[in-house]
Amino acid sequence: MEKMEFPSKFEIHYYFSDNSHSMNALVRNKCEAEFLAVAIEVAETLGIHLELDCEALQEGGLREVWKALGENSAQIALVISTLALIFSVIPKTDQELVDLQKEDLRLSIEQRKNALGKIKGDIENDNVTSETIDSASKIASINYKVVTRKSNFYKTLSTYEKVSQVGYSELSIEGKPLSDERIIVREEFPRFILIYQDLKPLKDSSAYIEIVAPVLIDGKAKWKGIYDGQPISFAMNDKEFKMAVVSKQLSFKNGDGIVCVLLIHKKVDELGEVVTSGYSVDVVLENVHSGVSGETTQGKRHRHTKKMKDGQDDMFGSDNA
After folding, report:
1. Strand 223-227 and strand 230-236: pairing?
2. Lowest mean pLDDT: which of 51-60, 74-83, 260-269?
3. Is residue 3 part of a domain?
4. Number of domains the chain is built from
5. pLDDT for 144-181, tens place per residue?
6. Quick check: 96 pLDDT over 80?
7. Separation CA 152–CA 298 (nearest Å)
8. What b/e sequence results for 95-107 when a residue is b if at least 16 CB atoms lie within 10 Å of its CB, and e otherwise?
9. Same domain for 266 and 155
């Protein structure tokens, strides 16, 4: 492939509907913070040390120019070109964002390791090509922090009606554009914004919860307990067990607990961090009272169903061997 001229600067160009050259300070500072968060995360993902200097603002709408400083020109070029793709390539469908957050598009550890190894080799050989940039962009674009902070960037702009479009350019050390400006018009901003931030819950199939405060009336109030040494509040979604407690067929005293199928709900917060958003009990398998464990009816049913399913999986697995 033809060797590319390496960019040293990155320009963000805000276009205004009123043809002015000023921007609300809070909006600009918020956008700047989100851009920097993306840039730092991209560099860290690619294993590159990066510093950014902001040059004097220019008119023509409003132009922010960021001069990148790093260990070598190949590293700098890769980060700048990757940022240009990340901020300007529109997701083909809304489902891409949903799938990403459900972890359907996550790379395996081995795939990620191999791709990063190839990128590192291209940098060391001073051979950063469009293929290298595409690979780097794909890796960075499935990083929760990158996707979330980019979403925040466009969400901020979408609430500021004065911005009609935003452009991104890769510049030489002298400030010369090295490619056509990538333009995203206002109507396309929503396609970058996350609308669904819940992840697939984690499942503990034999969780033990010491009950601290059961809910003794019917309703949606949450129970309190201790799980894995930590106090938690959780929804009791086992209707049979819940009704047994409400009807006083079951009672609890200090030290009693349950063995259950526990769902640990996760979401991506505003900073792109994966955090626990709640807990819910799907099925109570055993009720532990005064140190004695008793299997529940629904627990027997659940284990029987699981045993049958596991047997079918083993059978089909053997057939395919």
Report:
1. antiparallel
2. 51-60
3. no
4. 2
5. 899 999 999 999 999 999 999 999 999 999 999 999 99
6. no
7. 44
8. eebeebbeeeeee
9. no
